[in-house]
């Protein structure tokens, strides 16, 4: 119930948790009242939050610091500051291990300011000067507010500026800027400082705010022409991102012989690409090569031009631009990708000697780049087909299998090694530097005496999910088990997708790790088998491998049955409503409604049917069907027509959309990993295919309908 309230906060949810709280006593009632107070606080219903949290505070249990801190927040927001101060006074002494110890000083200072006790607020902040609290934007904002209230105008100005420039994307920074404006000193921010704000907004994707900042800067009266023009072109770049820029607007910018002029041409090139004007695109890039041969804006234009011709299947032109970027700008952020693409497209055109040379350079120059595993594999293929050197090919393949164990190209390499039979790999010292990513020390048992872990579990019962990870990590000895503990707590209340994400963040090296190198409990959460009975039954009905279905679900929704994408795709297998309605008719389901796609059983039933149909359209070839599932049938038909391909590996590498190519590779990798996990488990005596394999009995048998998801109160 508490979890549902935290997620939905409906009248029915409030009523259910309230009834539960009133009918229970002790820890159970305290957790329910804490859940209510927290939910009301999120909904800005502060008076009701006060009531629920005051009830929770009557029980001096393990979550006492949460009840106190959240109650103080509620009292402060409701304007009942004396009650808030009574709670916050001595908070860090009462709860020396609380995760709120760094936040309490800033909250108490704000409470005291609201009570016109400025000197008290100053003392509270001063007492925390030697703690980590001082690095928090909230502390710095409170510090500036206190200084301003004490009449220390210059000091407050300095503090607000420091906050704004150090944490420009924070909510506190916006408040600090408003205070500077109110004080009449925003104009004292230097041009360099204001530029840094615009750059921060732009790099964070906040293009409208960046555009406003650059526009204001361009209107500053005391600027040299070059600086003013840099702000004008920066604003234009924001408008391009916002899809509001026109060629006339860019043509109206000064055509200068500096970086502003180079960026202006780059913007014109992007607009030419958008309207598919090859002649104008080529003319602009040629002009940039002549006028700005060393500009990084030329590098951007070259990469974008290469991508343009890649999508048009004009590989010769794409090679020209990619190759030029890699040659002129070998340290550019896109150099490794451009270098690889020039080699790959040379291979596709049958220019095998050029391809071999570029692949060798890629392996030597960019050993850590994401594309280099592809270069290792395709150089191996050339060793086989062109150089007639199977031993050296085997060396490349074995390196891939050793370093990138679960990657798509590891699967392909194992297949090639099988074809090569007893061929012994050549000795290749240049391949020895390729090593798998390090795996952190991990354990699958937890200390029984960790108060932070105990509190994290109680937080889940109270629906205070946003604090779970912080609470676990507050244990100083948790590095080897914190990720698993967090993930298992999420799994215990049915949020498998949160559990998967927690372990993905903690184990980015899992795709290159042997199964035996990571405890099985981690793998079981990383590769869930929720709704397995349904997946098996529907897979049998549609002649599918259940591991393929689970792999697709993992990639599409991470097993979140409530997922709705920005393209309006629903549920575990991300079905569009129109597709769902058609499939429901075919299945004989009457009165189907879109919301039923959020039912896991229904979604799997229809999604497996859709996957079967897609496979049938493409001759049962998984790679084609998966590409179509992601990008659409017409695109895959178009990509097939761009062949011929020597094998399915060549088709996959030739998918021009990076997202779709990685999608296909990931699902094939997932499928193999699922099988490897189960094979490893069988070898080590694990037989049951239930979620409890993750060490979480609360998960056993979960998943056959929404109503079976465990609730916590």
TrEMBL record:
For the region Disordered, give the residue spans.
690-713
**SMART domains in UniProt:** TPR (SM00028)
Residue stretches of biased makeup (Polar residues): 704-713
Question: What's any one GO cellular component for it?
Answer: membrane
UniProt entry tagged with the keyword Signal: yes
Name its GO BP terms in alphabetical order. Answer: peptidoglycan metabolic process
List GO molecular-function terms, semicolon-separated: peptidoglycan lytic transglycosylase activity
Where in this chain does the record put each Outer membrane lipoprotein BamD-like domain? Answer: 300-417
- TPR repeat start and end residues: 299-332
The name this protein goes by in its record: Lytic transglycosylase catalytic
């Amino acid at each position: 119930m508490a979890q549902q309230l935290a997620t939905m906060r409906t009248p029915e949810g409030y009523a259910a948790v309230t009834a539960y709280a009133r009918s229970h006593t002790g820890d159970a009632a305290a957790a329910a009242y804490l859940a209510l107070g927290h939910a009301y606080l999120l909904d800005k219903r502060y008076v009701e939050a006060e009531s629920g949290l005051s009830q929770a505070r009557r029980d001096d249990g393990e979550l006492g610091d949460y009840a106190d801190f959240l109650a103080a927040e509620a009292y402060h927001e409701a304007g009942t500051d004396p009650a808030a101060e009574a709670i916050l006074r001595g908070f860090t002494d009462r709860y020396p291990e609380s995760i709120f110890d760094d936040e309490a000083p800033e909250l108490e200072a704000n409470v005291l300011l609201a009570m016109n006790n400025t000197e008290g607020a100053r003392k509270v902040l001063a007492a925390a000067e030697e703690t980590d609290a001082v690095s928090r934007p909230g502390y710095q904002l409170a510090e500036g507010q206190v200084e301003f209230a004490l009449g220390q105008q210059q000091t407050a100005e300095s503090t607000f500026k420091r906050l704004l420039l150090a944490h420009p994307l924070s909510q506190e920074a916006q408040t600090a800027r408003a205070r500077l404006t109110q004080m009449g000193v925003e104009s004292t921010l230097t041009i360099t400082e204001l530029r840094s704000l615009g750059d921060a907004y732009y790099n964070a994707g906040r293009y409208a705010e960046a555009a406003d900042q650059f526009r204001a800067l361009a209107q500053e009266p005391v600027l040299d022409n070059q600086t003013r023009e840099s702000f004008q072109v920066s604003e234009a770049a924001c408008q391009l991102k916002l899809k509001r820029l026109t060629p006339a607007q860019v043509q109206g910018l000064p055509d200068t012989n500096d970086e502003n002029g180079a960026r202006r041409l780059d913007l014109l090139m992007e607009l030419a690409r958008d309207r598919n004007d090859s002649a104008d695109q080529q003319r602009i890039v040629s002009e940039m090569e002549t006028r700005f041969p060393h500009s990084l804006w030329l590098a951007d234009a070259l990469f974008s031009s290469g991508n343009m011709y890649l999508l048009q299947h004009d590989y010769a032109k794409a090679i020209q631009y990619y190759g030029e970027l890699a040659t002129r700008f070998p340290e550019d952020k896109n150099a490794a990708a451009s270098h690889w693409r020039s080699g790959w497209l040379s291979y596709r055109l049958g220019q095998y000697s050029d391809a071999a040379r570029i692949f060798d350079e890629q392996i030597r120059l960019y050993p850590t780049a994401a594309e280099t595993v592809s270069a290792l594999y395709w150089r191996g293929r050339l060793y086989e087909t062109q150089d007639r050197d199977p031993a050296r090919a085997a060396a490349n393949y074995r390196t891939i299998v050793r370093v990138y164990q679960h990657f798509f190209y590891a699967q392909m390499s194992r297949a090639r090694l099988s074809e090569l039979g007893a061929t012994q790999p050549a000795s290749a010292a240049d391949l020895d530097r390729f090593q798998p990513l390090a795996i952190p020390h991990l354990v699958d048992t937890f200390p029984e005496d960790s108060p932070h872990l105990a509190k994290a579990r109680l937080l889940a019962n109270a629906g205070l999910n946003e604090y779970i990870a912080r609470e676990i990590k507050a244990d100083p000895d948790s590095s080897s088990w914190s990720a698993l503990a967090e993930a298992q707590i999420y799994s215990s209340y049915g949020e498998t997708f949160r559990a998967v994400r927690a372990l993905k963040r903690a184990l980015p090296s899992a795709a290159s790790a042997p199964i035996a190198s990571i405890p099985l409990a981690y793998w079981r959460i990383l590769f869930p088998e929720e709704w397995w009975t349904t997946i098996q039954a529907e897979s049998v009905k549609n002649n599918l491998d259940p591991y393929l279905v689970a792999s697709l679900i993992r990639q599409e929704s991470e097993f979140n049955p409530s997922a709705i994408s920005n393209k309006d795709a629903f549920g575990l297998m991300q079905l569009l409503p129109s597709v769902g309605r058609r499939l429901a008719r075919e299945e004989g389901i009457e009165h189907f409604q879109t919301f039923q796609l959020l039912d896991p059983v229904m979604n799997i039933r229809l999604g497996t049917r859709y996957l079967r149909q897609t496979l049938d359209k493409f001759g049962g070839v998984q790679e084609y069907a998966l590409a179509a599932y992601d990008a659409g049938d017409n695109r895959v038909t178009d990509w097939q027509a761009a062949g011929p391909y020597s094998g399915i590996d060549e088709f996959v590498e030739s998918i021009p959309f990076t997202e779709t190519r990685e999608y296909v590779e990931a699902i094939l990798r997932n499928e193999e990993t699922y099988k490897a996990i189960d094979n490893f488990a069988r070898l080590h005596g694990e037989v049951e295919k239930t979620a409890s394999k993750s060490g979480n009995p609360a998960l056993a048998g979960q998943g056959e309908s929404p109503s079976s998801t465990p609730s916590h109160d």
